[in-house]
Structure formats: structure tokens, C-alpha cells
Amino acid sequence: MDAMDSLERDGYVVVRGAVDASLVNELNERISRFKQRNAKAAARNLDEHGRLYRVVNLHLAIDAMTKLLTENAAIAVCDAFFGEPTSLYTSLYYERGSEQSLHRDTPVFATTPLGRYMGVWVALDSVSDDNGPLMVVPGSHALPPIDVHAIRQRLYGEGPIDPMSPEGWTAYQDAVAAQCEAAGLVPQPVHVSPGDVIIWHPQLFHGGAPHAATRTRRSVVMHVTPKGMPVGHMDVFYDPSRARQQAPWRYYQRDGRHVARFKHVDFGHQYKVRTWFLRKG
């Protein structure tokens, strides 16, 4: 069975060895040096073991990380899914497991049209049960659509919708969880080695297992779309009439691929640092 068949059947696929070991080693070294050069900027994000957590768009400060888009055999799966070249919208860097509850990404990656988004998870460490593996619910991408309009009316009526509404997020994820339970679908961990890549369908229910070990679980999650694809949040997810027709951000090129350009790196959704400051550090 090829990668697209697995993606269609299960809602995710693991592409083993998609990123060369030399690139994995290079990125781990570059990120380590980045932490040393920018110790003050990173300090508030580190846990008691010195591990970074959920750094948004680190690739804008460490340019070599864009090689995970340009030198990654798994990106061909995304190209086939979209039917056009894949571009990088945003990324997340982790040194420990996300430990995030099971969820679908679509409420905060509400593309126009819906579903023009994929998650691409690149392992920079070996990941097993003790250091926070990705959890997936095979088949959850193919469940019947949730009545999003009914949730909107119950929560908001015709009033305004917070783009990052906690109530909107929880109500939708609870509805998907109930569907999975009724269908007998259960989560399972995905064990990977450095250089392995996990790609998931935009409707896959997934999350992060507890991270019990003190060792790292270095990984990069790329959120990819076709170039120019507008991406909204819950205001667009619950009210598609609010969608933009074109992405408002600009792109730059790396080896024939396009990368969305933003001005900040976000550390754990707690504070932001301007990209130019981190690049010169």
C-alpha cells in the first residue's frame, strides 16, 4: 500500500526516513546553538530540564529548518493531496511532548475551501511511549460531518465569534470525541525514529501522549497549505462568510518552495520576539 492509500484509509501516514540523518543532525546542532546565542530570549520558555516547548515559527530565525520543506521526501504526499505544490504556512518546534488532548486542527486552520491544510510532523529524536508520542485515531477523518451551524447557534447565536474561542474549540472537539466513541475508534501511539515523518489529514483526531521521561522529544510540526491559501480561525470556521479570498501574508522562496513570511517567533503563546532580533543573536 502506498502513502496516499494509507492516508486515505487511516487519515495519516508515516514516511520512514523521509529526512536524511545528516539534516536531522544539522538541525539539532543549529537549534542547540540558537538556544545558547539567544539564552535570554528563550529562558522563560524552558522547563526544568532545559527543554523548549511549542515555539511557533522558529524556522524564521533558523533558516536551515526550511530544509524540512525542501529536502523532505514526504512532501510529495502533500503535493499529491493538494494537487499543487506545498508551501509552509507556520511551524511548531518542541523539545518535549505537546501532551495536548485529542483534537482536530480544522477550527484553527479553517482554510477556504475547508481542508486545504495538512500537518507534517518531523521527528528529530526517537519517540516511544515514554517521551510523548503523537496519538492518532485511525479512521476519524472519515466520520460524518459535525453540525457546525448548530454549535454556532447554541454558543453564539448571530453574535460575534472569538477567533480563539475556548467554548467553540471545546464544543467541537467534544462532538468529534463522541463520534469516535460511538464508532469504536480508539487512539494509538505512533513510534518514530529521527528522520521519520508523520503526515495527517486535516480531519484526523489526534493529540499528544504524556511525556514521562526526562529525555527530549525534539520534533518540528509544519502546517502546510498551497501557496496563497487563506487560513482563518474559529470565527471563519463557524461563519465561512468571514473568510478571506486570498492569504494576507507574503511569501519568500527556498529552493523552489514558498514559505509564509511573519515578523515574530512566538514562545509557547506566552511572548513573542521579533525575528530579526533572534537572527542576529
TrEMBL record:
Keywords: Dioxygenase, Oxidoreductase
Stretch forming the signal peptide: none
Cofactor: Fe(2+)
GO MF annotation, one: dioxygenase activity
Keyword Oxidoreductase among UniProt keywords: yes
Domain of life where this protein originates: Bacteria
InterPro entries documented for this protein: Phytyl_CoA_dOase-like
Protein name: Phytanoyl-CoA dioxygenase family protein
